[in-house]
Amino acid sequence: MKIICQYDKRLEGFLKDVVDYTLCKYGQELNLDNLQQIELMNISEFDLLKEGSTEEHGTKIILTSRLYDMLPSFSVENLESNPNFKMIVNTLYYEMGHVTDWKKYPKLYAEAESMDNLKIGLPALFWLEYLAEKRSCLKDGSNNSDFCKQFVERQWRAYYSNFDDIDENNFFYLNKVIPYFMARTIDVSVRKTYMNEISNELLIGYIDELSTEIEQMEKMLPFDEPEKLSSLYEIMNRYYKQFRDRYLPKRKWIF
Asked: 3-state SS string over the chain?
């Protein structure tokens, strides 16, 4: 496995220490046979704010420097209690979890990556993000409260859908975010507390139905058969139509 940082060799050495530290803590839970490279890139190279991603069919992890730039030093021994360092480790563990699952669920990941068939690709993306987030949010470094608070404060009038916009009116983006909310509120009482702050009744109904379906899907684990996502897609498709019917701006005719 290559571990590289092309723009700063000092950070490359630190990245290797971070990888060793993460594997020492969580390596027994992971299957990284397919992982060929981990690369740390300058956050300035990205248009969107992100911490990392798993790419090239689960063989490569890309990490961004955002959190690394906030560290007071590059000594793992002195950083174990640092919240940004904990998030760095959690991010790496999260992406390594995707690598692990990619090998375990190759058919689902192939559908989520290609999006050739949205009836499979969309629910596959939702499900795989949920599984990865549920695994990592139980570890040190997750800031669940800030994320959940921001999620419930948004309006989410998701009347259109595309792959590009990070907008609360985008149904596709909503379904990229909801898996994180669901995974970070596994505790029923915690989820109820946050959902009491949601003003959008349609969103509340959507989350409730997704919760029930997730419970059923978890009982089927492990599975890599795309057809087992059909009920999840039916819920997503039905609610997309409801969001669109309720929130799509009405055309104004001028005579």
From this structure: CEEECCCCHHHHHHHHHHHHHHHHHHHHHCCCCCCCEEEEECHHHCCCCCCEEEECCCCEEEEECCCHHHCCCCCHHHCCCCHHHHHHHHHHHHHHHHHHHHHHCHHHHHHHHHCCCHHHHHHHHHHHHHHHHHHHHCCCCCCHHHHHHHHHHCCCCCCECCCCCCCCCEHHHHHHHHHHHHHHCCCHHHHHHHHCCCCCHHHHHHHHHHHHHHHHHHHHCCCCCHHHHHHHHHHHHHHHHHHHHHHCCCCCCCC
Identity (one letter) of the amino acid at 118?
Answer: L
What is the model's pLDDT at position 226?
95
* CB burial of residue 228 (10 Å; 0-12, 13-18, 19+): middle
CA angle 68, 72, 74 (to 5 degrees): 65
**Of 166, 253, 169, residue with least CA distance to 203:** 169
Question: Average pLDDT per run of 10 along the chain, which is 255 residues long?
Answer: 94 97 95 97 86 95 96 95 93 96 97 94 97 86 80 96 92 96 92 95 97 97 96 98 93 55
